[in-house]
Amino acid sequence: MIEDLGFGTLWFPETAGREAMSQAGILLSQTRRIVVAAGSTAIYARDAVTTAAAQRTLEEAFPGRFLLGLWDSHPSLAEVIRGHRFGPPLPTMRAYLDALDTAPFGPPGTAASPHRVLAALDPGMLALATERAWGANPLGMPVEHTRNARAVLGPTALLAVTQLCVLGPDRSHTAALARTTAAAALPNRRTLLHDLGYEDVESLGDRLVDALVAHGTAADIARRVHEHLDAGADHVSLHLLTTTPHTPPTRQWRELAAHLLP
């Protein structure tokens, strides 16, 4: 359905639930042209050799249609859930990329794939994304962050922003879920938000909620997409939140497609 509506890329995360590489293979096999982006593939979920083999396998079967997004995860997910020791994010990601590029496994005749981005918010990870990947995929940050990220990445690296959003008939209907979503996003973003000029982050005022979560009508969300593009993003994906998270938001996808796609 997403493909038939005209969307060019389907992004999905890896935190809980389906394993990312298997899910990507399923989605690719059921579509014809759309790019499938595993936007937050946790580096603690599989070793780099396994990731390299999986990526090369998908590249062989679906040339040019799989994008790997690598994420350094959270201490609780890495240690409590997966049983690993969580290392310093930047050197750990750099070492993982080294191992990924030299991995010996994969289909015969295939080489290390350049089709990757890093889930990056802070300047250090953004700089690493410029050095070792196509670019970066910041998730859940204000437009000001997009402008700063472009400055770090330079003019040529891919900046693919993921915007949190809640769609409804008007902002009064979407405000509560937008606030809940913004509150859940705060723990990993407090310092970055303060640096962007949001001084009283803990109070979660309306200005901060609106900056983190685009909410309201399809026109409101489309306006935020264009703001990110004007700030330097090459691509904007929408992480659509609803009050029924286990039901695909097909109506909302259709409504957004009508406002965003030619």
TrEMBL record:
Gene3D superfamilies according to UniProt: Luciferase-like domain (3.20.20.30)
Domain Luciferase-like: 2-235
Pfam families: Bac_luciferase
InterPro entries per record: Lucif-like_OxRdatse_MSMEG_4141 (IPR019922), Luciferase-like_dom (IPR011251), Luciferase-like_sf (IPR036661)
Gene Ontology MF, one: oxidoreductase activity, acting on paired donors, with incorporation or reduction of molecular oxygen
Domain of life: Bacteria
SUPFAM superfamilies associated with the record: Bacterial luciferase-like (SSF51679)
Name under which the protein is recorded: Putative F420-dependent oxidoreductase
